[in-house]
């Protein structure tokens, strides 16, 4: 056991040696690339949670799909439910549909999160309303693994109005954008289904981005930063 895992064992969650070895093998996150979008591997994630309180609520399930080679690679998918012994059914249960028995039978959180981080590798992440998913995932990783999330998230909820201003949907939800693009979504409020819908929207947006001369993740991020600044600038 190296010095890092020794320190983790003393200061962080109590992980066994195998888990610590897996944790130590996780790759560093890659920065956003200047290379063409078609060459990127992106992981599109959606979380179902016990509620919307970033300080108290828990991640209950993770769904993810991969965009690679300018398409959704259905051979690379991730789905798991995290065991949460203290979970009590609430209003969110009506949304995500995860029963108490399904949550009680879920995977041990540290194992589930290690599985996901190995699936993720060094890839950037995409999500719809990414700020929430990033905060919830980061807290779960810190709580159960003592791991600090460094991976870059891009928000499809921001990319869509940036690249499609003619839609006049500045603060729209996932349902609004799937309807706008004419996508057929058979299931909603299920982590894997929502991740797939988000990935389908992202591919449309990447096509629009290339037509606007934005053919890299770094270029998209720079344009997003400019767009955000304009959104928050006071009107004269």
TrEMBL record:
Its EC number is 2.7.7.7. One of its GO terms (molecular function) is 3'-5' exonuclease activity. Pfam families: RNase_T. Keywords: Exonuclease, Hydrolase, Nuclease, Nucleotidyltransferase, Transferase. The keyword Nucleotidyltransferase applies. It is an enzyme of class 2 (transferase). Residues 41-211 form the Exonuclease domain. InterPro entries: Ribonucl_H (IPR013520), RNaseH-like_sf (IPR012337), RNaseH_sf (IPR036397). It comes from the Bacteria. This is DNA polymerase III PolC-type.
